[in-house]
Specification:
- By secondary structure, this protein is mainly alpha-helical.
- The chain folds into two domains: 7-68, no CATH class; 81-149, GMP Synthetase, Chain A, domain 3 (2-Layer Sandwich).
- It is built from six helices and three strands, in the order αααααββαβ.
- The chain has helices spanning 6-23, 27-54, 59-63, 67-75, 83-93, 122-139; strands at residues 101-105, 110-114, 145-149.
- Strand 2, helix 6 (122-139) and strand 3 form a beta-alpha-beta unit.
- Helix 5 (83-93) crosses helix 6 (122-139).
Amino acid sequence: MTAPDPAEAAAQRVDQLLAELRAGPDTRAAGLAEELTRCLVHLYGAGLTRIAALLPAGRLADLCEDPLVESLLLVHDLHPLDATARIRRALAGLRLADEPELLGLDEAGVVRLRVPSGGGCQSSLQAVTARIEAAVRCAAPEVTDVVMELPPRPPPLLQVSLRPGLAVP
């Protein structure tokens, strides 16, 4: 069993504390706590920006191999790859039999994809599209919507049987 990630635990605790403050009777305190959180995030973002500026070329991309660091770079708009490149990388990382085709990302943040197949089964197509959408949203949190062109549904199978009254030889 792996130990819980301290960063993940801290993020969950921040969310929990803010939710408790929002649910409480003192809305002013909740608002102040949220503003304090935004200010701290901005402060750390400014620090990360300065660190990124000091790094030699290519090192920022190396740091993206760590999921936590990559997510922080995304939050502060410091990721070295643009959204389209991150989406392409995420789709390739899914290792699907038929890789989805990225048709585009518009200025409103809508990603358009063509999904070749789901292995012929509607339920597996639903599972594949759910994985695709999760990967896209994780790689590019700025995405507002994911629109997928799906393959046409296969025609229903027809049951072939003998006419009533005919015997099988």
